[in-house]
């Protein structure tokens, strides 16, 4: 039987003639940080102080002693090397590598001595490739498109420039005899209620003449097949399988699959995974509105409630299974059912996809290409093919994975960002996205759909970012327009849109110790990576609020409110137009360090108000008030649940002083997975800045419609009572209290609130649950509460 021996211990990192203890998996930055050589690059402006690390060569070493074993061959296996390195044993070269996204295997049978892994500077490699192949345009000046490495380690408009090197995934020895399983490609389908698992395997042999068989088990079914040379196929049919469903549509049953390689009765190797039985399609058929983009799972058409995922740490080796679990559970708890793994990051570890399988989170997986023209010549082309083949097969068992996507914004960039003229005919990646990658997916994983890019309209006959066709990225809003512009169109699928806000106050205080916080203080500006980010925040605020000059706390609160309001404007509008629009994927769920960004969860894992707003926006049942072309208003009753939603819609026209100026009840009946539009009687439409509309359905959902920006609303001075109750804080409103927010981290850095923004009408009461607050105090609670106030 194959024996595996971990080699994660005993490594050292050479630095200035000294040997520092090294953690594997890890990277140079984390090892230098542990040794006290560099300051924490997440704090203050230390990022700039450690820029030299990415410009140097680095060497990892340890002794290599082969285990006492009767086996015929021993391999040294690296699951991930970041990025350009040569591997030697006692000076003997085993190989050279140049791709962070691949694993590597070297025959070390009979070898022992000093194992060294010497990493070249990623900058040096990228600049050398650029020198050979020529310039290629990109969104940033850093040379990330010239090597197969996590692009965002070179910085992004939300991330630091911390160019890593190191043994970033596990390393081990594998000793084996006769043969081993080199690759298993599981094709999992459903045929008339029967689950079908077809396991296609490749084997590596030390003995060509040995007769080999494989035995497979799943769901109580056992099957055997012979291995023909180095290949084998075994097929199992599992009757009456329980289907795997996305979160909110059903359960997520997982079946253990075991494949054993046999020589006679000798067990040579075993491969184990979990699979789920489900079908997935991507409907891109044309209709009266253009070209659709609708995911269909087990025959059920979905409105995808999505978030974009970036690496959860700029040093990805620090992201544990527990951390994946925490972050992805946060997503599921917010009503998310799809996570897009964005193309400037990595193919995530098995832990990520395992958790998604368990939680029912659909995974849209980008191939790692983002915001740049990528050369198609060697040495890159061979690396792209090798990494794609390995990762497609590696991730195939996961039922959560439902879509392969060729790239992020590169097809759009070619058309709109002046790339075509600048490239003057040079390669830029089109051959990957429209040729190589779809061919690999079709060959290896025909059970899943592939799309060439995001955004992509499906054809060069149309603009790549045409909202009427395929996927759309909405960035004119935020960059140049108010978020009200989201309501001006109905894209078929909105794969990126977002609005910035700063992180929680406790996160800022930890990241910027000793700094007097202000929007333009040195540390705040350093932790704002977007081009003119603070200017866009200000202009976005001034369209709705009086700008709070000199009041950081008020600025912090209002920018977070504005982020939540912006995302609500988009999701409410687009969900109300299902099935024309079939999904929204918010940019972004998470952060990789403490930063002002588009994230719903900040770099310390704290939820912004946007996170809690997503729980409302992505709930199965949602109300929203929508303008109609004739100038009237309708309440869109959005029902994404599996059962019809019938009831009475209670409508009230209310003054800001709390007087009910008009009321009506209207029956509604929204079918399962359907939207019903209910007209608002003209007499209930708000008549000016002192009035607003309240729509409620059976106490399940509420929608508010204020007809003018907040700066024009004559809010009363908010009055409310605060009391401590078991597990939290109770607030009772005496006036209109709009967008009340308890900033729990102001009570205690460890404290978390169970809700975000809430609007109370006079006499209404809310209980805000708080955990992690060791010394509850009503005065402190009141001081941590913020809401809308009369314009100054």
Description:
This protein is of the alpha+beta class. The chain contains 16 helices and 44 strands. 19% of the residues lie in helices and 32% in strands. The chain is globular. β6 (84-89) and β7 form a beta hairpin.
Spatial arrangement of strands, main beta sheet: 11-12-15-14-13-16-17
Name the helicity range: 10-25%
SSE class: alpha+beta
Number of strands: 44
Q: Overall pLDDT, averaged?
A: 97
- Point out poorly predicted stretches: none
Sheet having the most strands: 7 strands, antiparallel
What is the molecular shape? globular
Rg is: 28 Å
Question: Descriptors for this entry?
Answer:
single chain, 792 residues, alpha+beta, seven-stranded antiparallel sheet, six-stranded antiparallel sheet, 44 strands, globular
Helices and strands in order:
Blueprint: E1 3-6, E2 12-15, E3 18-21, H1 28-34, H2 46-49, E4 58-64, E5 73-78, E6 84-89, E7 92-98, E8 104-107, E9 113-119, H3 122-133, E10 171-176, E11 179-191, E12 194-205, E13 213-218, E14 221-228, E15 231-238, E16 255-263, E17 266-275, E18 280-283, E19 286-287, E20 290-291, E21 294-297, E22 300-301, E23 304-309, H4 321-333, E24 338-341, H5 350-359, E25 362-366, H6 380-395, E26 401-405, H7 410-416, H8 419-423, H9 430-444, E27 450-451, E28 471-474, H10 476-479, E29 493-497, H11 505-511, H12 522-526, H13 533-542, H14 552-575, E30 583-586, H15 609-617, E31 621-627, E32 633-639, E33 645-655, E34 660-670, E35 674-679, E36 691-697, E37 701-705, E38 720-725, E39 728-733, E40 737-742, E41 752-753, E42 758-760, E43 765-771, H16 778-783, E44 785-786
Parallel strand pairs: 23-24, 23-30, 24-25, 25-26, 26-27, 28-29
Antiparallel strand pairs: 1-10, 2-3, 2-4, 4-9, 5-8, 5-10, 6-7, 6-9, 11-12, 12-15, 13-14, 13-16, 14-15, 16-17, 18-21, 19-20, 21-22, 31-32, 32-35, 33-34, 33-36, 36-37, 38-39, 39-43, 40-42, 40-44, 41-43
